[in-house]
Write a structure and sequence with these properties.
about 350 residues, alpha/beta, 12 strands, about 40% helix, globular, hydrolase activity, acting on carbon-nitrogen (but not peptide) bonds, in cyclic amidines
Amino acid sequence: MLKIPAFYDMHSHLENAFIGGNASSLEEAVEKWSKIRDKMSLEDLKKRIEKAALVELFYGTTHIRVHADTCSKNSVKAAILAKEELKEYVDLQIVAFPEQGIFNCSKEDFINYAKLADIIGGKPEVDENPKEHMDFISELAFKLGKHIDVHIDQHDAKTKHSEYMLRVAKTHLALSHLTALHFYSDKYAKRLIKTIKEKNASVISSPLTAFYLNGGNSYPMYRGLTRIKELLKEGINVCLGHDDIQNPFYPSGVGDMLQVLWMAMNIEKEFDPSWINLITRNAEKEFGYKNEDYILVDVNSIEELISTLIPRRAVIRKGKIVAKSTIEMKVLDLNPLSLIEELKGENFNTSL
């Protein structure tokens, strides 16, 4: 039995989790969501956020950063109500997120929601003047004394908004997605990574949605993920988020952060057990709350956990079991993990 820290989901959109749908691009997904969004009442959104958060709890996540759409009349309010309702089970951190822009929607509404939220969000690419957008959220965050977590450089296009955002931000900054980093030349990428480090900013990657939506719809297809391995090598605080769950942005997923980590490791070709920090220790640093919650799993090591994605046996929060699995690990009368151990124990020379 292995005891490990409970997980963090550092980038989520719980208000539209499990609504179904599919899209071939980010723009199409946003359009589909916007048509559904305003048909949902405050109570509808609140209940969806709560239920989706509890699904994540089952898989071991007790801290979730929720991006609530400020172009919706009810999303931020619903997220704040859900935060209070769930506090015994899951800590929610609410980001005021302008899905379709600050000035395209309502600047006044965004300011009001930003005052209610924990963190100031942004999405510079969707407003007519991205620099005005970034200046605005920087000044607002400074005035309110709040951190910034901005969706940025998340398309296949080689946009370079992060460089400007790093320059104007006056409070702590998290760069969410940053998928354009995989398109940049090595020379420019190294320069940007150096600036991220100097600014002590975090990078939050969401490999499931990013890999699914980015890369275009014809060959050659790009991998649609930021340079996690290089960022970590330079000492950048990198965290992971599930982002979307069974909605137009990403049609699969169940809110399991181990699946997110597994995908990141595959894309980056780096099965390093220390990467568990991307959903634990690194995320704790960005989230800002001390994590005393933990998970019990029926494996002997982090390597086994990542390889098997085994169900969590129990999730313990504030000293109490808040989630548990009763799945019995058997195939015929054998435990599959025991079979794996036997196979791995057989010595063969694979260095030929």
